[in-house]
């Protein structure tokens, strides 16, 4: 929604809200993922991934001269992501090494 401040300057802004339900593997995975070389463990209690985003920009246009500057902000809640637990297991699901969790 651009707003013309004067013939050369304008301001534009946007706001958005999005949601994403967890995928089945994010809820119920419990075992090796051979292609990725990982062991995935789902979370059946996972909630919707939600985000609110805003964008604001200041634009200049005068003859052949054009430019803009903008800022963008997103706030996530219940972000669904994979992270390294630091556990290494063998094919029998026995822990063979444990390192500090990295997130």
From TrEMBL:
Keywords: Cell outer membrane, Membrane. Gene3D superfamilies: TonB-dependent receptor, beta-barrel domain. GO terms for cellular component: cell outer membrane. It comes from the Bacteria. The keyword Membrane applies. It is found in: Cell outer membrane. This is Iron complex outermembrane recepter protein. It comes from Paraburkholderia caballeronis.
